[in-house]
Structure formats: C-alpha cells, structure tokens
Amino acid sequence: MSSERARPSVRPPGAERVSDGRERAAGEAWQAMYDLVFEGEGQRRLHEACDLTGLSAGVLKTLLVLSADEPVPMRDLAERFRCDPSYVTSLVDGLEVAGLAERRSCPGDRRVRMVALSPAGEETQARVRKVLGVPPAAFFALRAEELCRLRDLLVKLAGSEPSPT
C-alpha cells in the first residue's frame, strides 16, 4: 500500500468525527482492500474471466448479477448500476448475442422488459465465479487462524452494508 496516496475522508456524510483512530484505520483498511481487488490479483482475475468468456468487463458484471430463475427488469439494472437505461440495453445486447441471456416480457406489464440468464449463461456464470473465487496468492501469507479472523471480519462488514439498489 502506497503511503503517497491521498486519503479521502471515510466518514459517511453527517457522521461525527471519531477520535479513537477508527477513521484512519478504516481508510487504510479500505485502501488495502481496494489495492488487492482492483489493482492486483483481482484485476488479473477479472481480465482472465473476460478472456475466458469473450465478454467486456461491463457485460461480465451484468452476467454476474443475473439469474435464470428470477428475471430482472432492465430498468432495475440501470438503477443498480447507476447508469442510463440505454447502456443497460447495450450490456444485455452483448449477453444476448453470446447466447447467455434472454429478454422477456413482464407477465404483469408487457411494456416492461426483463432479462434472465439462459442455460448457457448459467454455465458461463458458474465458470466465471470459479475463476473469480480463487483466493489471491497473497492470502497464503496468513496463517489459518488469521484467515479465519479475516473471513469473520469481512462477513461482518458485508452484513452491515445496505443491499444494492
């Protein structure tokens, strides 16, 4: 982790300043996680998954949030990704062209377009999750008990996150 990087404030808007060192430690922990996931092995794995599937990163991300059993309204994807609905259309087009997803009409409102994974999409999603799920080599610098503690802390943090909209 580079000490040269500027550390933005990690306090949520409206939160009071804490003086027990948590703000700084939280910023350093977040930066270390960011470095591991987005700049190191995680980035290499993302590219490996893109190469495996022939999909761009954006289309791959869309593949990962879909299921075959629960079609999602395309407008919900636009809200979740905080993007223009026309961009979601292009992402879904990429999945459809590859045979990985299909558009469906909403049973309650035929004007609403929904998207779900095809059987090939489910298989591809499983292969991608397998590639992305392999722990980075850096994890093996930790002892088993340290890995268990890290896991428990990350599960605790993930449980306190609001679900994506």
Please characterize this protein's 3D structure.
56% of the residues lie in helices and 10% in strands. By secondary structure, the protein is mainly alpha-helical. The protein has a domain at 56-126: Winged helix-like DNA-binding domain superfamily/Winged helix DNA-binding domain (Arc Repressor Mutant, subunit A, Orthogonal Bundle), CATH 1.10.10.10. Strands 1-3-2 form a three-stranded antiparallel sheet. It is globular. It starts with 21 loop residues before the first helix and ends in a 5-residue tail after the last helix.
CATH architecture group name of the domain at 56-126: Orthogonal Bundle
Radius of gyration: 19 Å
Query: What percentage of amino acids are in beta strands?
Result: 5-15%
Helix/strand structural class: mainly alpha
